[in-house]
Amino acid sequence: MSHHWTHIKFAAVNAVCLPRLPSLVAQWLPDGRMHGREWVALNPTRADRRAGSFRINLENGLWADFATDDRGGDPISLYAYLNRLSQAAAARELATSLGVAA
Predict the structure, then answer these.
(1) N or C: which end of the chain has fewer CB within 10 A?
(2) Phi, psi for residue 33 in degrees, rounded to 5
(3) What global pTM score does this model have?
């Protein structure tokens, strides 16, 4: 099935992702663990050997790798970062996989 994307509703995609973020990050970063309201995992985009600096806030979607200063503010930006995608491509993939009319 081919989709023609002329305008992506980033807010709608993020709104669907945010309540599902605990299960999404468990899929995206399966080596991670809950630490309070955060998911703490190894950063797969670099040679990270010790969990602790890469954290995702499961309540608001903010994420950061404090070792590299990479950071973002929502599930789309996290997915884009992990998969080396543009924000638009990440939003399209998430919308398709979650059944969101983006």
Answers:
(1) N
(2) -150, 155
(3) 0.90
